[in-house]
UniProtKB/TrEMBL annotation:
PROSITE patterns: LRR (PS51450). PANTHER family: LEUCINE-RICH REPEAT-CONTAINING PROTEIN 28 (PTHR48051:SF12), PTHR48051. SUPFAM superfamilies: L domain-like. It holds the Pfam family LRR_14. The gene is LRRC28. It comes from Ailuropoda melanoleuca. This is Leucine rich repeat containing 28.
Length: 312
Protein backbone atom coordinates (compact mmCIF):
# COMPACT_ATOMS: atom_id res chain seq x y z
CA UNK A 1 0.00 0.00 0.00
CA UNK A 2 2.85 2.39 0.90
CA UNK A 3 4.70 1.69 -2.34
CA UNK A 4 1.50 2.21 -4.33
CA UNK A 5 0.90 5.51 -2.57
CA UNK A 6 4.46 6.70 -3.27
CA UNK A 7 4.08 5.74 -6.91
CA UNK A 8 0.81 7.65 -7.23
CA UNK A 9 2.35 10.79 -5.74
CA UNK A 10 5.55 10.46 -7.80
CA UNK A 11 3.57 10.20 -11.03
CA UNK A 12 1.55 13.26 -10.04
CA UNK A 13 4.77 15.18 -9.43
CA UNK A 14 6.47 14.14 -12.66
CA UNK A 15 3.40 14.73 -14.83
CA UNK A 16 2.47 17.93 -13.01
CA UNK A 17 -1.03 16.78 -12.16
CA UNK A 18 -3.54 19.36 -10.98
CA UNK A 19 -5.77 16.79 -9.23
CA UNK A 20 -4.70 14.11 -6.77
CA UNK A 21 -7.07 11.52 -5.29
CA UNK A 22 -5.97 9.87 -2.04
CA UNK A 23 -9.37 8.84 -0.70
CA UNK A 24 -9.92 5.59 1.24
CA UNK A 25 -6.21 4.98 1.82
CA UNK A 26 -6.38 4.39 5.58
CA UNK A 27 -3.85 7.16 6.08
CA UNK A 28 -3.02 8.06 9.70
CA UNK A 29 -0.46 10.72 8.79
CA UNK A 30 -0.12 13.21 5.99
CA UNK A 31 2.04 11.48 3.32
CA UNK A 32 5.66 12.63 3.53
CA UNK A 33 5.98 12.06 -0.19
CA UNK A 34 3.63 15.02 -0.71
CA UNK A 35 5.98 17.25 1.27
CA UNK A 36 9.22 15.98 -0.22
CA UNK A 37 11.61 18.46 -1.86
CA UNK A 38 9.52 21.23 -3.45
CA UNK A 39 6.27 19.39 -2.94
CA UNK A 40 3.66 19.46 -5.69
CA UNK A 41 3.78 23.00 -7.03
CA UNK A 42 1.18 22.42 -9.75
CA UNK A 43 -1.41 20.66 -7.61
CA UNK A 44 -4.75 22.52 -7.36
CA UNK A 45 -7.14 19.90 -5.93
CA UNK A 46 -6.32 17.40 -3.22
CA UNK A 47 -8.87 14.74 -2.19
CA UNK A 48 -8.15 12.89 1.06
CA UNK A 49 -11.61 11.82 2.18
CA UNK A 50 -12.28 8.91 4.53
CA UNK A 51 -8.85 8.39 6.00
CA UNK A 52 -7.68 8.59 9.62
CA UNK A 53 -5.74 11.84 9.58
CA UNK A 54 -5.49 13.65 12.91
CA UNK A 55 -3.62 16.80 11.91
CA UNK A 56 -2.22 18.81 8.99
CA UNK A 57 1.46 19.67 8.42
CA UNK A 58 2.71 23.16 9.24
CA UNK A 59 4.45 23.50 5.86
CA UNK A 60 1.36 22.58 3.83
CA UNK A 61 1.14 25.93 2.06
CA UNK A 62 4.86 25.92 1.29
CA UNK A 63 4.68 22.52 -0.41
CA UNK A 64 1.27 22.96 -2.06
CA UNK A 65 1.21 26.72 -2.79
CA UNK A 66 -1.36 26.59 -5.61
CA UNK A 67 -3.97 24.52 -3.83
CA UNK A 68 -7.50 25.71 -4.70
CA UNK A 69 -9.63 22.91 -3.25
CA UNK A 70 -8.88 20.72 -0.23
CA UNK A 71 -11.24 17.86 0.70
CA UNK A 72 -10.63 16.28 4.10
CA UNK A 73 -14.12 14.91 4.72
CA UNK A 74 -14.38 12.02 7.24
CA UNK A 75 -11.06 12.00 9.05
CA UNK A 76 -10.15 12.45 12.75
CA UNK A 77 -8.76 15.98 12.65
CA UNK A 78 -9.24 17.80 15.97
CA UNK A 79 -7.75 21.23 15.26
CA UNK A 80 -7.58 23.38 12.13
CA UNK A 81 -3.96 24.58 12.47
CA UNK A 82 -2.60 28.08 11.91
CA UNK A 83 -0.84 26.86 8.75
CA UNK A 84 -4.18 26.68 6.95
CA UNK A 85 -4.19 30.49 6.74
CA UNK A 86 -1.22 30.44 4.35
CA UNK A 87 -3.16 28.69 1.57
CA UNK A 88 -3.97 32.05 0.03
CA UNK A 89 -5.46 30.58 -3.18
CA UNK A 90 -7.80 28.15 -1.43
CA UNK A 91 -11.43 28.48 -2.55
CA UNK A 92 -13.00 25.32 -1.13
CA UNK A 93 -12.27 23.68 2.22
CA UNK A 94 -14.22 20.61 3.37
CA UNK A 95 -13.57 19.42 6.92
CA UNK A 96 -16.97 17.80 7.51
CA UNK A 97 -17.23 14.67 9.64
CA UNK A 98 -14.07 15.10 11.63
CA UNK A 99 -13.51 15.62 15.37
CA UNK A 100 -12.91 19.38 15.18
CA UNK A 101 -13.00 21.25 18.46
CA UNK A 102 -11.08 24.36 17.42
CA UNK A 103 -10.89 26.44 14.28
CA UNK A 104 -7.93 28.81 14.48
CA UNK A 105 -8.38 32.56 13.85
CA UNK A 106 -5.97 32.30 10.90
CA UNK A 107 -8.81 30.89 8.83
CA UNK A 108 -9.80 34.51 8.28
CA UNK A 109 -6.72 34.91 6.09
CA UNK A 110 -8.23 32.68 3.39
CA UNK A 111 -9.47 35.70 1.45
CA UNK A 112 -10.25 33.64 -1.69
CA UNK A 113 -12.34 31.06 0.18
CA UNK A 114 -15.84 30.56 -1.28
CA UNK A 115 -17.05 27.31 0.28
CA UNK A 116 -16.42 26.24 3.89
CA UNK A 117 -17.91 23.01 5.22
CA UNK A 118 -17.48 22.17 8.89
CA UNK A 119 -20.55 20.00 9.48
CA UNK A 120 -20.60 17.05 11.90
CA UNK A 121 -17.86 18.12 14.28
CA UNK A 122 -17.56 19.12 17.96
CA UNK A 123 -17.33 22.89 17.55
CA UNK A 124 -18.71 25.06 20.35
CA UNK A 125 -17.79 28.36 18.73
CA UNK A 126 -16.22 29.83 15.62
CA UNK A 127 -13.66 32.65 15.66
CA UNK A 128 -14.91 36.14 14.72
CA UNK A 129 -12.29 36.16 11.96
CA UNK A 130 -14.77 34.16 9.88
CA UNK A 131 -16.23 37.58 9.13
CA UNK A 132 -13.09 38.41 7.14
CA UNK A 133 -14.03 35.90 4.45
CA UNK A 134 -15.45 38.43 2.00
CA UNK A 135 -15.75 35.92 -0.88
CA UNK A 136 -17.45 33.20 1.17
CA UNK A 137 -20.65 31.95 -0.51
CA UNK A 138 -21.41 28.71 1.36
CA UNK A 139 -21.03 28.03 5.06
CA UNK A 140 -22.17 24.69 6.50
CA UNK A 141 -21.71 24.39 10.25
CA UNK A 142 -24.58 21.98 10.92
CA UNK A 143 -24.45 19.26 13.58
CA UNK A 144 -22.04 20.89 15.99
CA UNK A 145 -22.42 22.28 19.52
CA UNK A 146 -22.67 25.96 18.70
CA UNK A 147 -24.47 28.21 21.17
CA UNK A 148 -23.99 31.36 19.10
CA UNK A 149 -22.93 32.38 15.61
CA UNK A 150 -19.67 34.23 14.87
CA UNK A 151 -19.81 37.90 15.91
CA UNK A 152 -18.82 39.30 12.54
CA UNK A 153 -20.66 36.84 10.32
CA UNK A 154 -22.72 39.70 8.86
CA UNK A 155 -19.54 41.01 7.22
CA UNK A 156 -19.47 38.01 4.85
CA UNK A 157 -21.10 40.08 2.13
CA UNK A 158 -21.03 37.30 -0.49
CA UNK A 159 -22.64 34.65 1.73
CA UNK A 160 -25.58 32.98 -0.06
CA UNK A 161 -26.14 29.69 1.77
CA UNK A 162 -25.92 29.37 5.54
CA UNK A 163 -26.68 26.01 7.19
CA UNK A 164 -26.70 25.83 10.99
CA UNK A 165 -28.98 22.83 11.55
CA UNK A 166 -28.79 20.70 14.69
CA UNK A 167 -26.84 22.97 16.99
CA UNK A 168 -27.76 24.59 20.32
CA UNK A 169 -28.72 28.07 19.20
CA UNK A 170 -31.20 29.95 21.39
CA UNK A 171 -31.42 33.04 19.22
CA UNK A 172 -30.36 34.49 15.89
CA UNK A 173 -28.32 37.73 15.95
CA UNK A 174 -30.24 40.60 14.39
CA UNK A 175 -27.21 41.63 12.35
CA UNK A 176 -27.66 38.39 10.38
CA UNK A 177 -30.51 40.21 8.60
CA UNK A 178 -27.89 42.54 7.11
CA UNK A 179 -26.39 39.86 4.86
CA UNK A 180 -27.14 41.32 1.43
CA UNK A 181 -26.63 38.15 -0.65
CA UNK A 182 -28.15 35.51 1.65
CA UNK A 183 -30.59 33.35 -0.31
CA UNK A 184 -31.05 30.30 1.92
CA UNK A 185 -30.95 30.08 5.70
CA UNK A 186 -31.41 26.75 7.48
CA UNK A 187 -31.56 26.58 11.29
CA UNK A 188 -33.61 23.43 11.85
CA UNK A 189 -33.25 21.41 15.02
CA UNK A 190 -32.00 24.13 17.37
CA UNK A 191 -33.50 25.72 20.51
CA UNK A 192 -34.74 28.94 18.96
CA UNK A 193 -37.43 30.78 20.90
CA UNK A 194 -37.79 33.75 18.55
CA UNK A 195 -36.46 35.22 15.32
CA UNK A 196 -35.38 38.80 14.52
CA UNK A 197 -38.31 40.86 13.28
CA UNK A 198 -36.24 42.00 10.28
CA UNK A 199 -35.55 38.46 9.09
CA UNK A 200 -36.86 38.11 5.56
CA UNK A 201 -36.84 41.80 4.82
CA UNK A 202 -34.14 41.28 2.21
CA UNK A 203 -35.48 40.32 -1.21
CA UNK A 204 -32.55 37.98 -1.73
CA UNK A 205 -33.57 35.73 1.16
CA UNK A 206 -36.09 33.27 -0.30
CA UNK A 207 -35.72 30.05 1.71
CA UNK A 208 -35.87 29.82 5.50
CA UNK A 209 -35.96 26.50 7.38
CA UNK A 210 -36.60 26.48 11.13
CA UNK A 211 -38.15 23.02 11.51
CA UNK A 212 -38.08 21.28 14.89
CA UNK A 213 -37.47 24.33 17.05
CA UNK A 214 -40.10 23.40 19.64
CA UNK A 215 -39.80 26.71 21.54
CA UNK A 216 -40.43 28.84 18.46
CA UNK A 217 -43.92 30.37 18.72
CA UNK A 218 -44.10 32.63 15.68
CA UNK A 219 -42.47 33.98 12.56
CA UNK A 220 -41.61 37.53 11.45
CA UNK A 221 -44.17 39.00 9.09
CA UNK A 222 -41.54 39.46 6.36
CA UNK A 223 -41.42 35.68 5.94
CA UNK A 224 -45.05 35.26 4.90
CA UNK A 225 -44.22 35.26 1.16
CA UNK A 226 -41.05 33.17 1.43
CA UNK A 227 -40.51 29.43 1.21
CA UNK A 228 -40.64 28.39 4.86
CA UNK A 229 -40.01 25.10 6.63
CA UNK A 230 -41.46 25.20 10.16
CA UNK A 231 -42.79 21.73 10.97
CA UNK A 232 -42.35 20.72 14.59
CA UNK A 233 -42.39 24.32 15.87
CA UNK A 234 -44.44 25.56 18.81
CA UNK A 235 -46.35 23.64 21.45
CA UNK A 236 -48.74 21.04 20.01
CA UNK A 237 -52.48 21.78 20.21
CA UNK A 238 -55.50 19.57 19.84
CA UNK A 239 -57.34 19.49 16.52
CA UNK A 240 -60.53 20.43 18.38
CA UNK A 241 -58.92 23.72 19.38
CA UNK A 242 -58.36 24.73 15.76
CA UNK A 243 -61.12 26.93 14.45
CA UNK A 244 -61.90 26.07 10.86
CA UNK A 245 -62.60 29.12 8.71
CA UNK A 246 -63.95 29.24 5.20
CA UNK A 247 -64.75 31.55 2.34
CA UNK A 248 -67.69 30.75 0.03
CA UNK A 249 -68.80 32.18 -3.30
CA UNK A 250 -71.02 30.07 -5.49
CA UNK A 251 -69.30 26.70 -5.75
CA UNK A 252 -66.03 27.96 -4.28
CA UNK A 253 -65.33 27.10 -0.64
CA UNK A 254 -61.80 27.38 0.79
CA UNK A 255 -61.18 25.97 4.28
CA UNK A 256 -58.29 26.63 6.62
CA UNK A 257 -56.89 23.12 7.21
CA UNK A 258 -56.67 21.73 10.73
CA UNK A 259 -52.96 21.09 10.20
CA UNK A 260 -52.31 24.84 10.29
CA UNK A 261 -51.51 25.61 13.91
CA UNK A 262 -51.81 29.07 15.42
CA UNK A 263 -48.49 28.93 17.25
CA UNK A 264 -48.45 32.66 18.03
CA UNK A 265 -50.24 34.48 20.84
CA UNK A 266 -51.69 37.95 21.08
CA UNK A 267 -48.66 39.08 23.08
CA UNK A 268 -46.11 37.95 20.49
CA UNK A 269 -44.57 40.64 18.29
CA UNK A 270 -44.45 38.25 15.37
CA UNK A 271 -46.98 37.02 12.86
CA UNK A 272 -48.77 33.77 13.87
CA UNK A 273 -48.80 30.99 11.31
CA UNK A 274 -52.61 31.15 11.16
CA UNK A 275 -52.41 34.70 9.85
CA UNK A 276 -49.82 33.63 7.31
CA UNK A 277 -52.25 31.02 6.03
CA UNK A 278 -55.09 33.54 6.00
CA UNK A 279 -53.09 35.96 3.89
CA UNK A 280 -52.42 33.24 1.36
CA UNK A 281 -56.11 32.26 1.27
CA UNK A 282 -57.07 35.91 0.87
CA UNK A 283 -54.75 36.19 -2.12
CA UNK A 284 -56.15 32.97 -3.64
CA UNK A 285 -59.74 34.13 -3.15
CA UNK A 286 -59.25 37.47 -4.85
CA UNK A 287 -57.34 35.84 -7.69
CA UNK A 288 -60.42 33.69 -8.25
CA UNK A 289 -62.67 36.75 -8.31
CA UNK A 290 -60.50 38.45 -10.91
CA UNK A 291 -60.92 35.41 -13.14
CA UNK A 292 -64.58 36.30 -13.79
CA UNK A 293 -66.45 35.26 -10.63
CA UNK A 294 -68.40 38.13 -9.00
CA UNK A 295 -69.24 38.35 -5.38
CA UNK A 296 -72.70 39.90 -5.10
CA UNK A 297 -73.99 41.36 -1.88
CA UNK A 298 -77.75 42.08 -1.83
CA UNK A 299 -79.14 44.72 0.45
CA UNK A 300 -81.82 42.52 1.97
CA UNK A 301 -82.99 45.18 4.37
CA UNK A 302 -84.19 47.50 1.54
CA UNK A 303 -87.30 47.06 -0.64
CA UNK A 304 -86.75 44.99 -3.81
CA UNK A 305 -87.24 48.03 -5.98
CA UNK A 306 -84.17 49.75 -4.56
CA UNK A 307 -81.90 46.73 -4.16
CA UNK A 308 -78.78 46.98 -6.27
CA UNK A 309 -75.94 44.45 -6.51
CA UNK A 310 -72.54 45.51 -5.24
CA UNK A 311 -69.77 43.97 -7.29
CA UNK A 312 -66.09 43.71 -6.45
Amino acid sequence: MASELCKTISVARLEKHKNLFLNYRNLHHFPLELLKDEGLQYLERLYMKRNSLTTLPENLAQKLPNLVELYLHSNNIVVVPEAIGSLVKLQCLDLSDNALEIVCPEIGRLRALRHLRLANNQLQFLPPEVGDLKELQTLDISTNRLLTLPERLHLCLSLQYLTVDRNRLWCVPRHLCQLPSLNELSMAGNRLAFLPLDLGRSRELQYVYVDNNIHLKGLPSYLYNKVIGCSGCGAPIQVSEVKLLSFSSGQLTVFLPAEVKAIGTENDHVLPLQELAMRRLHHTYHSFLKGGQQLVLWLTAAPPSVCRPLTY
